[in-house]
Amino acid sequence: MTAIGNFRPAGLAALAAAAVLALAACSQTPSGQAEPSQSASVAATQSSLTASPSPSASPHTSATVGAVVAGFPQQLLPLMTGASVVSSSFDKASAPATAALVGTVTAPTASVVDFYTKALEGQGFKAVPGDKVGGVASKDFVRGDNETVNLSVVEAAGVSTFTIGANVAAESAK
Question: 141 has which bridge partners?
Fold first, then answer.
């Protein structure tokens, strides 16, 4: 299996979380047509919505917008100090267990990468060579033969938006 194949479940979880975000950004007009909400980003951070899993997701996947989903492995993937959660998802029942977190923080990309590199290396993960995919900061980590984590960070106007996804043994998802 390739390294890209290892990230598929977390990628699906992140995709599901992104879809929930997109849905949260719309509201219905009286005629029933979707209309972009003027305060979608404010609403997403002020309320927590639980998403139904996508047809391709495990039936045990849960996703939440604006908060850390119940049961999320915060020891494995801690929230960086000062960061806000955009969305999160978790499926401990799948093999491997999958967890994904999207957040924002007023910090440079290098600080986000440094924080998560230290957090993951402290848990026995090793960084894979390479720091970018195209123009996006992206770092992969492995532990053992089948546990993987990917971190991607995009910075704009002094705010870094990061996505971190993990595929780990169920006992590691604590």
Answer: 127, 149
Question: Residue 155: pLDDT above 80?
Answer: yes
The span from the CA of 106 to the CA of 21, in Å, is: 20
Using alpha carbons, select from 91, 87, 98, 97 the residue that is nearest to residue 61.
91
Q: For the purposes of burial, counting CB atoms within 10 Å of the CB of 28, is it exposed (0-12), middle (13-18) or buried (19 or more)? A: exposed
- As a whole number, the mean pLDDT across the chain is 75
> DSSP states of 18-56 as a string?
HHHHHHHTEEE-TTS-EEE-TTHHHHHHHS-EEEPPPTT
127-143: b (≥16 Cβ within 10 Å) or e: beeeeeeeeebbbbbbb
Count CA atoms within 13 Å of residue 17 on its CB side: 33
